[in-house]
Amino acid sequence: MLETIFWTTEEVVAAGSKLYEQKIRPLVETPENIGQMLTLDVETGEYKIGSNSIEGAIELKQNRPMARLFTVRIGYDFGVSFGGLSERTVK
Question: pTM (2 decimals)?
């Protein structure tokens, strides 16, 4: 029987944010990637970069259907903006 360990949304966000900031951001925040979506499996560290988060999620879930995924827009504080400006992160 497959045992599943449940993660809260807060746990996924905390793990994903930490992994992204400490290990992945320096590798992917390049001029050609700014504005792209990065989808990250917080348990394995595997990630996919694309124009939207759906493509990355589908690809990562093919390998690990129970993957806990975290998504971030490279170079921005927020993934999406509704009716406002999306300001770029300055680092």
Answer: 0.81
Distances (CA, A) of 21 to 29, 57, 66: 11, 20, 23
DSSP-derived secondary structure letter, 80 = -
- Contact between residue 76 and residue 35 where contact means Cβ atoms under 8 Å apart: yes
Count Cβ neighbours within 10 Å for each residue of 42-66 and write b for 16 or more, e otherwise. Answer: bbeeebbbeeebeebbeebeeeeee
pLDDT tens digits, residue range 4-18?
Answer: 678 899 999 999 999
Least Cα distance to 36 among 46, 44, 47, 45 occurs for 47
Residues present in the chain in total: 91
What six digits make up the tokens of 81? 């903006």
Contact between residue 32 and residue 75 where contact means Cβ atoms under 8 Å apart? no
